[in-house]
Write a structure and sequence with these properties.
Number of domains: 2
CATH superfamily of the largest domain: SPOUT methyltransferase, trefoil knot domain
Oligomer: single chain
Radius of gyration: 21 Å
CATH architecture of the largest domain: 3-Layer(aba) Sandwich
């Protein structure tokens, strides 16, 4: 059911039925398999704004009518931006937002976006711009998103997700964890069964596998050359076949009795060491 929404701009419509086709599109985006996905689900006004700044094309935006009634300048600005750029925008009742959002406590805005992810080959071609981070088998989507954010902050050339049961880098949880970095940094999903190390070598990259202990210190390696750095998943670390296929094994020196670092922390430390070495050349 559609009707006028009480807000400062009069043209936005209100969705009050959870059976509305717009809600169905949001629900479909949540259920779609990562290999057949056509749209990304963006949860939260800030992530939507980050996507807009990065040039991502939004297809539909749904904002909370209750928040607009209370007075929400940021949401008003989002709606005005959508209207100015002919993006489908509507205000949803609280039950509608609950049905469209993946969260139990819905955000004040959700969106469907069209985004073409780069191929693995396209990301590998960027190795000269900065190291490439390859989360291998990282299953927690929030952790995967944090890895993408860390790689972006450190000036990495891109991220390639690989490994069995790896989290979906374009799922809503990973997108929230990356806080917009997925749209600023090239991120590819190699999937399961790809021979990423061999692909990287053909692209001129040295393949490094990060391990908690007994690898060469990152301070002793020349990280100024194009490199793909494999970061292991939670608990299991780098899978043995991937480990053996690396050109070198690297460790982050750690003091005390610490056994390992969180995958996102390890990715950040290694990416910043690459940046430090490259800046010193």
């Amino acid at each position: 059911m559609l009707g006028p929404a009480p807000r400062s701009a009069d043209s936005v419509e209100t969705v009050t039925s959870r059976r509305n086709p717009l809600v169905a599109r949001f629900r479909s985006a949540l259920r779609t398999n990562r290999r057949s996905r056509t749209h990304l689900l963006l949860d939260g006004r800030r992530l939507i704004a980050d996507a807009r700044r990065a040039g991502v094309r939004l297809e539909s935006v749904l904002v909370a009518a209750s928040a607009l009634r209370r007075g929400a300048p940021a949401l008003d600005a989002l709606v005005a931006d959508c209207e100015a750029n002919r993006i489908d925008v509507a205000a949803g009742s609280d039950p509608v937002l609950a049905a469209a959002s993946p969260l139990r406590s819905p955000s004040t805005a959700v969106a469907l976006a069209c985004h073409r992810a780069p191929s693995v080959e396209e990301v590998l071609a960027r190795a000269a711009h900065g190291c490439l981070i390859a989360p291998a088998g990282v299953q927690d989507p929030g952790n995967l998103g944090a890895i993408v954010r860390a790689a972006d902050a450190a000036g990495a050339g891109g991220v390639v997700v690989t490994g069995a049961a790896a989290a979906d880098p374009f799922g809503w949880k990973a997108l929230r964890g990356a806080m917009g970095s997925t749209f600023r940094l090239p991120v590819a999903d190699a999937g399961e069964g790809s021979d990423l190390p061999e692909q990287a070598r053909r692209a001129g990259c040295e393949v490094l596998a990060a391990v908690p202990r007994n690898g060469r210190s990152m301070y002793d390696l020349d990280l100024t050359r194009p490199a793909l750095i494999l970061i292991g998943g939670e608990g299991a670390g780098i899978e043995s076949p991937v480990h053996r296929s690396a050109d070198a094994v690297v460790s982050i020196p750690m003091a005390g009795g610490v056994e390992s670092l969180n995958a996102a922390v390890a990715a950040a430390v290694l990416a910043y060491e690459v940046r430090r070495q490259r800046m010193a050349v």
